[in-house]
Here is the input.
Amino acid sequence: MPELKAFLEGGGEAGALIRAHDWNATPLGPIREWPQSLRSSLGIALRSPAASAVFWGSDHVFLYNDAWGSLLAGGRHPWALGRPAREVLADIWPALAEQFAGVLRDGQAVNRIDELLVRNLGGETFDSYWSYSLLPVAGEDGRIAGILAQVRESTPFVLRGRREALILRMAERLRLLADPDAILDAAFELVGEEVDAARIGYAELDEGAGTISILGCAVKPPLDDISGTFSIPDFGKDIDEDLRAGRTIRIDDSARDLRLGEAHVRKVYAALGVASALIVPIVSGERFRAMLFAHHHEPRRWSDHEGALLRAATEHVWREISRARAEAELRRSEERYRRLFEQANDLIVLATLDQVITDVNPAAAAAIEMPREGIIGHSIADFLAPGQFDQAKRMLEQKIERGGTTQHELIIVSRSGKHLNWDINSTLTLDKSGNPVGLHAIARDVTERRRAEERQRLLVNELNHRVKNTLALVQGLALQSFKDGRDMAEAREAFQHRLAALAAAHDLLTRESWEGATLDALAAETLGLHDGGEARIAWHGPPVRLNPKAAVSLVMALHELCTNAAKYGALSVREGRVEVAWSVAGDLLTILWRESGGPPVRPPERRGFGFRMIERALAADLDGSAKLDFDPEGLLCRIEASLADAASRGEEE
Amino acid sequence: MSARAAPLRILLVEDEPIIAMTAEDMLDAIGCAVVASAATLEEALAAAARGGFDLAMLDINLNGVRSLPVADLLKQAGTPFMFTTGYGADGCGPHTDVPLVPKPYRIVDLEAAIARATGGG
Here is the structure.
């Protein structure tokens, strides 16, 4: 009855197999006795391009088309033909039995999308996903006699979705982490959700040193953390090559893997407890940089899913770690510059282009004598002396026009009103496209330098004045010494002595830094010169300090008196003596010059320069008087000076 | 040196006595008579107020004190004056048109300054 098998025609290879199969010994019996409902549903299944089958009878005898046949892994095709579902789908039967039974019992179709079925084929367990429908087929008597099934494996799509979801979570989590170690921990945790391994780790390559540094591991017993540095060649030459080429490495069994041919290499893997490994390198800029790896202490087959997941994760980890390091470096760099800013002795001021201060360093705040917060937000103009802001604005305009740095000096007014000279170097700050957005100024306080320069200027002026004054004085001495009618030799000697006396007075004052001199020192300086080491001149009196002008004048006067005494008075004979005694009564200083033991004194016919100078110059410079008494017993000179004037007034300007 | 009917009467303001004495001798030599002298600002102001002189010779710096008030007073009174100084040209205040004789003096400079100050130059 060939026509009875017509439903098998066009059923492809599977149809032919069914036709050729000996069904007599099976619960279905010979094909010619198959009920019409079986024939019809099987005909539909065989002609379907999708994987389709009929499970007939209470044993769910399995009849499938070519498309299903190609799904049957593990050499089950064509062995599966005509066998009960519980045998053919033994590994997943526990999950399916009730569904099959239900269809027969209740006549309700089953439709499942992406159903997880944990397969176990050839001793290997793995997740698989299936979309399938089980449709009830009624027999001749109207009761459900079989199931028309269609199935589509969705494992790759579901796993890809799982990977994508995981990588998305990973991206979101890692992005927020600043610490490379935290990034690794989070990545290991997430990878561990999909990759069942006893050790997941991350390593970086140091090409120059020929080493690999394992930076971190997440481990489960019996494997342990192997963070540390390893020599690259220890992991095998072939492995090294694959890593450099950017190829993912799967080692299902390190004891058998041919790439680990050398004995010492196998020993390394054994020592680390690695029976199987999945390693994904990152090649960046054509160089092997880093890798993410999974180790297991038992041999295992690494799935494509695990490989793909690890690859995707590796890229993220590498990128995020690089990012975290760059950020950390940036923070360190910012920290360094912040410290420089905080600790600089130079004064640093940042401002907008409108000259509003945006920041100052502590040195600048201290100089302005205000807290930083009190300065920020103020215009630079608020801290400048009048008229200085125009200069600051001109400098800013110059920088905006020509760029570069300007150097100029501004006078800053501190909170307490101190005027400070700041020597300022300022530059525009630019945004990424080179447009000026503000300015920063580094200044040095040159107030002290300016003051010193001013002092210096005054000193030079003063020196000039003194030199001129001294020259005028010398001129006076010369004119007086060389008056008409004088004996030239005598005049020359007198002039020389006067110059020497003037020089001695200057020496004395220079030793005292021109702060005046004591009367005792003046007497010693002048009188000692004329004494000739014979102690014929005695001087005594209380300590008195004279100002420079008075001191010079007194030295000159004493010199003139000595000269006169040596020529005409007490010092012209061996027995003659001179006594200089001074006393202070309140504000009045009295100096008494008394000669004795000399030739009888006669008043001179004409007052020479010496006496004129004593009477006039000394009187004027001491703000007092000088009187000469030509007592025949010996010359007397009484000098009175106002101490308030002669002593107190400091250096002349 | 021009001969004069009567010597020009001078107020000499100079704080350094020896220089004052020198100036007196020099002025005497060119036919001037120092009729009053002062060594301090107070003395000079008093002497200027008293008058009795034809020309004042003012040291700008009197022992650290500027003699400008004396110059102002003389200017008001219309009395001719001239400055002497050991400093440079500055220090004359507003009287920049007044003759200035630097120290040490030269007789020719004194003569020229006197001539200018008295309008005889």
Observations:
- Chain B touches chain A through 21 residues (CB under 8 Å).
